[in-house]
Amino acid sequence: MATLVARIDGASRGNPGPAAYAAIVETPEGERIASLSKAIGHATNNVAEYRALIAALEYAVANRAPGLRVFSDSELLTRQVKGIYKIKSPGLKPLHQRALALAAQLKEFSIEHVRRELNREADRLANQALDGVRRGTQ
Prior knowledge:
It contains four helices and five strands. With 138 residues, it is α/β, with parallel strands linked by helices. The longest helix is centred in the middle third of the chain and has 18 residues, at 45-62. Helix 1 (45-62) packs parallel to helix 3. It has one domain (4-128): Ribonuclease H-like superfamily/Ribonuclease H (Nucleotidyltransferase, domain 5, 2-Layer Sandwich). The protein is globular and about 40 Å long.
């Protein structure tokens, strides 16, 4: 199996408020192999972003992928994972630690910040999961 690509996003209405995440996992050629999304209850958008990252990493580890390239429109998340920004929020520290522990199980890991318009599909899936909760269907 080749290094996988994941496009991730988190959504929160109210921040904090009802929240959800999405992760789209693809082959390097762009073939979608998984769409992961879930409502996570009451949380901030940053918690939802981390949950999306963790879902993508768990998928890669569980499927024995040698690596994972992640694209996120969250500048905070990408810079915290790269060690550029410190984690000030106590609620994000365990999520950050979990993400780094999962990434350490892969031979290759990278995370890149992308403009929001380049992450529309992950945003759509996160909001779809969130809308399901608001309608009471998830």
